[in-house]
Amino acid sequence: MQAHTRKHPTETVELRFIGPIVNIARAIESLKPLGFVDTSDSVPWREAFPEYKDEDLPSVCLRGSRHKEGLTQRQLSGITGIPQRHISEMENGKRSIGKEMAKRLGKALNIGYKVFL
To answer: Which residue from 98, 111, 99, 101 is spatially nearest to 71, judged by alpha carbons?
Structure first.
């Protein structure tokens, strides 16, 4: 007997349609009551922040997630048991974030751990 072993990783989806351009406004308006949001005017993050390279992303995500939660490095250290010095080094790209460390940080910061890898 097969059973689902994993939860789907996301609660949102992106829809794309092909059709007459004259109906685009009607299509968008009919989807809004269902909770869909028009993102056609959004800019990909790589275009908005060209100064960040792929190897910078874990440290930027860590710093941003910590600020979003309103925590200092010392507070995050107390929650996770990770020395504050190590958190500083991770945020400045001087220390890599391993899988176990990412899981502890993700749990403390209410974010999926994979953004730190």
So the answer is: 111
Nearest-CA neighbor of 109 among 86, 87, 89, 92? 87
Q: Residue 14: in which H helix or E strand, if any?
A: none
What's the rounded Cα separation, in Å, for the pair 113 and 115? 5
pLDDT in tens, 57-93: 999 999 999 999 999 999 999 999 999 999 999 999 9
Q: How many CB atoms lie within 10 A of CB 91?
A: 20
Distance of alpha carbon 69 from alpha carbon 106, whole angstroms: 11
Q: Across all residues in the chain, what is the average pLDDT?
A: 89
Q: Euclidean distance between the first and final Cα of the chain, in Å?
A: 34
**Ranges of each domain in the chain:** 48-116
- CATH of segment(s) 48-116: 1.10.260.40
Model pTM score = 0.64
